[in-house]
Amino acid sequence: MFESFELAADAGGGGGSIVSLILPLVLMFAIFYFLLIRPQQKKQKTRNSMLGSLKKGDKVVTIGGLHGTIMEITDDIVVLRVNDVTKLTFDRSSISHATKVSEGEA
């Protein structure tokens, strides 16, 4: 019984033990930040800038895979022309990626 108290006292002693406990947590957070959080923030920033720069005539692909050309656009609604007669209304956030159309093609 006395031996277990001595082992417990030996294991918890020293001023460097708190640093040895915190250092792995700090390193783990830094790894998560540089491998997961920062790339996701960059990706979200580029997506937001793409959504903000959409304009009439751009060719886009929705998250569901539908290809179309923007006919009308507001702050949160996009009307896409899928073929010559079909127009579909989507949320702006449902646009996956866009291809800019040059002035000569339009």
From TrEMBL:
Q: Where in the cell is it found?
A: Cell membrane
Alphabetical keyword list: Cell membrane, Membrane, Protein transport, Translocation, Transmembrane, Transmembrane helix, Transport
Transmembrane segments annotated in the record for this chain: 15-37
**Main localization of the protein?**
membrane
The topology of this chain with respect to the membrane is:
Single-pass membrane protein
What does the entry list under GO cellular component?
plasma membrane
- Biological processes annotated in GO: protein transport
Task: Output the InterPro entries linked to this UniProt entry.
Answer: Preprotein_translocase_YajC
Q: Which PANTHER family match?
A: SEC TRANSLOCON ACCESSORY COMPLEX SUBUNIT YAJC (PTHR33909)
Q: Which family does it belong to?
A: Belongs to the YajC family.
Protein name per Swiss-Prot or TrEMBL: Preprotein translocase subunit YajC
Q: Which species is this UniProt entry from?
A: Paenibacillus dendrobii
Q: Which gene encodes it?
A: yajC
